[in-house]
Each structure stands twice: as C-alpha cells, then as structure tokens.
Amino acid sequence: MKKKAIAFSLAAMLASGVAIPTAVIAQPIETGYQEALDQFDQKAIRKIDVDRIYNHIATLSEAPRVAGTEVENRSVEYLKNEFESYGYDVEVQPFTYTGYTEPSRIDLHVPGMESELSPGNFTYGVSGDVTAGLIDAGIGSPADYERVNAEGKIAVVRRGEFSFAQKVINASEAGAAGVIIYNNSPGALNGTLGGHDDRYIPALSLSQAQGQALLEHLKANSGAEARIVVEGAETGEHTSHNVIATKHPTNKKKDTGEVIVIGSHMDSVPDAPGANDNASGTAVTLELARSMKNLPSDTEIRFASFGAEELGLIGSRHYVKELSEEEKDRIVANFNLDMVGSRDAGDLIVASVDGEPNIVTELTQKASKKLNGEPTTRGRSGSSDHVPFHEAGIPAALFIHSPLEPWYHTPQDTLDKISKEKLQDVAEIVAAAVYDRARFDNQNPKEKIREKSSVPKEAFFEQPIR
Ligand code: BES
Ligand code: ZN
Fold it and tell me: Residue limits of the Peptidase M28 domain (predicted)?
C-alpha cells in the first residue's frame, strides 16, 4: 500500500531491500524538505485512532442532525462531553437565526382546468387559503401592475429579471391576495424567498409547462378562479450552537500568540443521516483534539464544531462575527473539514475560496507530500464554513473529496459508505500540517512558509467539486 510504504523511513526501506516507491524519488525536492516523516510528524499522527473516528460517525449519524432540533442539541452535548473527557475547556456558543418550517400541505386548484397542477412551495413563503380570480401579471414588475388591476386577485407571474421575493412583494403592494410564479425554462421550480418579509402573501410555484397551460386556461376563460392553500408554514426564531475546545500553548513563555482553528459543521440536511456530510469532519475534529491533546506547542489550537451550516454557514458566520479584531489578527489558519470520509467520492482536495495558495494549502501540501509521496491537489470552493474566515482575511481552506459521492444530501448518506482509509488519510494530513505550524521549535516567521513552498506549480489545477 502506497501510503504505509512511504511512512517508513528511507533508510529502513534501503536496509530491508524494499523497493522505494517511485513517487518518493521521482520528484526531486528543491527546497531541502525531508522526504520521510520527521519526529514532529510522527508525534502528530501517532495517537490517531481511526476506529474512534468511525465510532463517532456511527453515533452522530443515527438520525439527521438538522439545525435547531433536539438531535442537533444531543450532538452538541455529545461533542461537549467528548472534548471535556479529553481534558479541554469547552465553550458552547449559542446563536439565534430565523428558521423556516416547511408547510405540511400545499394545494393549487383551478376549477374547470383539465390538466393536473403540481405546485411547489417557496422557502419563507407564508401560510394562507385564498380563492380569487386569476390575472396575468407578466414578469410581475410595478409597470405590469399599472397595466392590470391586481386588487384581491391571484397574480400569475413569470420567473426572471428580479428575485422571487421581489415578485411576491410587488404583487402584495399592488393589492393581490396570492401569487403563482412559473418557471421561465423547462423543469420544476423550487425557490426561496431568501428570508421573511411582513408583506408576503401566499405564493406557489409551477413548472414552465404548467404555468403556460394555466395562462392558456385564463385566456380561454376570462374571470377564471383558483384556490391556493399553504398550511403549516412558519418562520420563527431558532437557536443553534457552536462548540469550541481550546488547546493552549503548552509553555506560556514561548506562546507565539498565533491561533489555528480546525473546524467542521455538525448539522445535516433534513432526511439525511449525514454520515459523510458532516459527521465525518466532526468526528475527525474530535479525534484530532484527543490525539493532539498533550503535544508540546507554541500555538493555540481551537477545535470548533459549527451549527446551522446547511442553512447558510450561520454558525461559522456567527463565530467569526463575534471575534474581536485582535483575535482575528491572531488566527493564522482555518482548516475546514467537510465531507472527508466517503468511500464513493474521489480524491482529497484542499480548496481555498479564491483558488489561490495560502498557509493552509501550503502546510497541507507539504505534509501530504511527506505522508503520501504526492501533495494533495489544490482546488477552489466556497459553500462551507471556511468562507466566513476567508472573508475576514484569515487564510482558510476546505478539505473534501472530489467528485462528490452520489449520496450527498440524501437519506443514503450512511455509515456503510464511510471509508476508514480516507478518514485516516485526512486526519494524518491535517494533524501533520497543523503541527508543522504549532510545534514548539518552529521559529519561522509566517512569510517563510510561503517562500519555502516545495509544491510544484503543476500540482494545482482548478478542480470542479461538483
Ligand atoms: N458539505 C457541503 C459542502 C460542499 C462544498 C458541497 C463544496 C459541495 C461542494 C455543505 O454542507 C453544503 O451542502 N453547502 C451548501 C451551501 C451552504 C451555503 C448552505 C451547498 O453547497 O449547497
Ligand atoms: Zn457539509
């Protein structure tokens, strides 16, 4: 196995007559890094126990961990207890956000229309039961409502040019009682209004074909009516949590003042057990905290588990927003582990938001080259908790396997699809990369890391993650 072979020292391989993997000798390293693992790398990865990671995933993925629910709260307790059992001080940071409960029933009935309509809901749409005459309101702009009288009517509006929310608000301000927005290209329409607004009126979506059929029906039957029903939809304040365990520098006198944040999100989407997304990253974060607990270090390491990522990076945004300017300056790197264990996904990628190298990608490529003989491929990606760090000017990158597995955000994202080998690989790479920076005798000023890059330019290609 490639990886294990490279974990041996070169000397041991030569002595035992084992063939040296070509990856080690085929890539001359110009900058003088050792090819084999040094004592610090060994120390950083020695205590990683992949069975512990796997067992955390088993526990966390028993049920979907949707933000703001009882299951997410149980995960918060689990993480807090685990971190504390390793000897850490743990902060549980609550935050609130506006959450949306999907309607329990939606219905669109048009008396006299022969074809079946299959409407969709808009996230943040409001409940209501409206029966009224239909009008064709074009694109739904204020100019459209000068042309037609929408008072008390249900406006039929085409998608495009401006947001769904604005279309609902325009209709509402023109006095309409309901809105139907149909697609402007083939296929169903599943949209979001982006957030709550007091002006909303009940709104449903239709595919392009069904929207056009509805307008045909209206043309042929002037005064045609419809009934829109949206039941049980609710927008309200919800609470979720971040959990942060801190490893302080082990010798106060040598404290560099620098902080590294290793983070991952704990929540999942509804109906998905989220074994890979993201019990995997959460479990690796836990095991890194445990295995690195007693490492001598001159850098603070924070192990963070963020809530409500799937609702729009809410937990990590809250965490970064609450940092003082002084703390932001001290954070030199954010390692974001999100979907790091799927047997059915591709290779590991370390992706920054802008696709440019930074301290995280450099440390990662240096560590992975030593561990595996070749550096982890770099890529570019947003869509996860490293984004708020990047936006605050903190070097950050996402660890993910690409291409994604087919189970992403489905009920099939379960424990049986998890690869221990992938978990072990990511855990070792991140541990070695972080410890390269955090270990005691690392007196290199920050800039040196960039100068000393041993990673050939060709190792970068822009990797489409999905
Ligand atoms: N685990 C994914 C992250 C991800 C990153 C997936 C890159 C695919 C490619 C994450 O949990 C997620 O699903 N993110 C959302 C966006 C987020 C802002 C709600 C997504 O990508 O749809
Ligand atoms: Zn995720």
Answer: 242-433
Q: Which atom of ligand 1 is nearest to the CA of 387?
A: 18
* Cβ-contact 177, 204 below 8 angstroms: no
- Best residue among 353, 384, 407, 463 to mutate for probing ligand 1, ranked by most atoms within 8 Å of CB: 384
Average pLDDT over residues 9-35: 35
Backbone angles phi, psi at 136, to 5 degrees: -90, 110
Task: Tell whether ligand 1 has an atom less than 6 A from the beta carbon of residue 385.
Answer: no
**Phi first, then psi: what are they for 282, rounded to 5°?**
-65, -45
Which pLDDT score is estimated for 35? Answer: 62
Residue 190 has a pLDDT of 87
Residue 201 has pLDDT above 50, yes or no: yes
* Encoded amino acid at 379, one letter: G
User: Would you call 116 helix, strand, or coil by DSSP?
Assistant: coil
Instruction: Provide the percentage of residues in the chain whose pLDDT is more than 70.
Output: 87
Average pLDDT over residues 176-202: 95
Cis peptide leading into 119, omega within 30 of 0?
A: no
Domains and CATH numbers, the chain: 5-99+237-462 (3.40.630.10), 103-232 (3.50.30.30)
Is the pLDDT reported for residue 121 higher than 60?
Answer: yes
CA of 344 to the centre of ligand 1 (A): 17
Tell me what pLDDT residue 458 has: 38
- Give 452's pLDDT tier (boundaries 50, 70, 90): very low
Least confident span in 7-21, 283-297, 317-331, 393-407: 7-21
CB 459 within 8 A of CB 365: yes
Q: Whose CA is nearest to atom 14 of ligand 1?
A: 383
- What is the separation of C-alpha 259 from the centre of its chain, rounded to a whole number of angstroms? 22
Q: Beta strand pairing status for 154-158 and 105-109?
A: unpaired
Ligand 1 neighbourhood includes 383 CB (under 6 angstroms): yes
Ligand 1 lined by 339 (C-beta under 6 Å): yes
pLDDT of residue 84: 98
C-beta 384 within 6 A of ligand 1: yes
Beta strands at 234-247 and 89-101: parallel, antiparallel or unpaired: antiparallel
Of 431, 311, 309, which is closest to residue 320 (Cα–Cα)? 309
Please tell me the distance from the alpha carbon of residue 339 to that of residue 283, in angstroms, as a whole number: 11
pLDDT tier for residue 464 given thresholds of 50, 70 and 90: low
CB 349 near ligand 1, within 6 Å: no
